[in-house]
């Protein structure tokens, strides 16, 4: 009699374990399906914000990387790629997103430049380097740029940051990054240490 009770108990426990496992699998699949559908919706809404980053492999016409400088000589560049790159360049022309940007942390808070680098890259800026401002903490954020770039979007993103001429900032203010070739230098002050 004891063996029958024990066998019945074990069978019941095994069935309960299988049912619990099946319910757990169904719940996980439902959660996975929801996550995937949210991800697809998010990707669909972000498709208009994607930009094309040209690398040396994908732009053999660039003489900087050993190309001939004549896009017509490139046999592996398709017309679709050329039109997509041209439309991206047209969209970014003059707005600063195609400029070489350097973000310097002058806030005294560690990691701020890296956080702003991520924010700017997500906003479509294609070349963003970071470093530390060596001349002490600054209370306000300043964007140093030349007249050839419209930085109104960047000013807005940085909460109304001040602007100054690119020539007003010396290359010696950052020892960990070379800003001499930068088109735009953003010095993040204390006012933007926690704003992104």
Count of helix runs: 4
How many domains? The number is 3
Radius of gyration equals 27 Å
Shape: elongated
Average predicted local confidence, pLDDT: 78
Proportion of β residues? 5-15%
Fraction of residues in helix: 25-40%
As an assembly, this protein is single chain
What is the structural class? alpha/beta
Under the CATH scheme, which architecture of the largest domain would be assigned?
2-Layer Sandwich
CATH topology of the largest domain: Alpha-Beta Plaits
Classified by CATH, the class of the largest domain is Alpha Beta
Could you list the spans in which at least 5 consecutive residues all have pLDDT below 50? 71-93
Straight-line distance between termini: 71 Å
Q: What is the β-strand count?
A: 5
Element-level helix/strand string: HHEHEEHEE
Question: Tell me about the biggest sheet?
Answer: 5 strands, mixed
Strand arrangement within the widest β-sheet reads: 2-1-5-3-4
Can you walk through the features of this model?
Helix content is 39%, strand content 13%. The longest helix is centred in the first third of the chain and has 45 residues, at 2-46. The chain has 3 domains: 2-46; 54-92, no CATH class; 100-192, Alpha-Beta Plaits. It is of the alpha/beta class. It has helices at residues 2-46, 79-92, 112-122, 152-157, and strands spanning 100-105, 127-132, 142-145, 162-165, 184-188. Strands 2-1-5-3-4 form a 5-stranded mixed sheet, covered by helices on one side. The protein has 4 helices and 5 strands; from the N terminus they run H-H-E-H-E-E-H-E-E.
């Amino acid at each position: 009699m004891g063996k029958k009770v024990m066998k019945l108990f074990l069978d019941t426990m095994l069935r309960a374990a299988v049912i619990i496992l099946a319910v757990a699998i169904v719940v996980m699949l439902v959660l996975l399906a929801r996550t995937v559908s949210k991800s697809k919706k998010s990707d669909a809404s972000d498709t208009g914000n994607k930009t094309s980053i040209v690398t040396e492999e994908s732009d053999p016409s660039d003489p900087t990387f050993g190309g001939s400088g004549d896009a017509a000589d490139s046999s592996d560049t398709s017309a679709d790629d050329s039109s997509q790159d041209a439309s991206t360049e047209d969209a970014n022309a003059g707005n600063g997103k195609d400029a070489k940007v350097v973000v310097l942390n002058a806030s005294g808070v560690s990691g701020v430049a890296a956080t702003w680098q991520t924010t700017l890259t997500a906003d479509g800026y294609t070349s963003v380097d970071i470093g530390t401002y060596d001349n002490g903490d600054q209370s306000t954020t300043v964007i140093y740029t030349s007249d050839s770039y419209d930085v109104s979007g960047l000013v807005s993103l940085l909460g109304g940051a001040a602007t100054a001429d690119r020539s007003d900032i010396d290359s010696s203010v950052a020892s960990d990054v070379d800003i001499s070739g930068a088109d735009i230098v953003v010095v993040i002050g204390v006012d933007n240490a926690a704003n992104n």
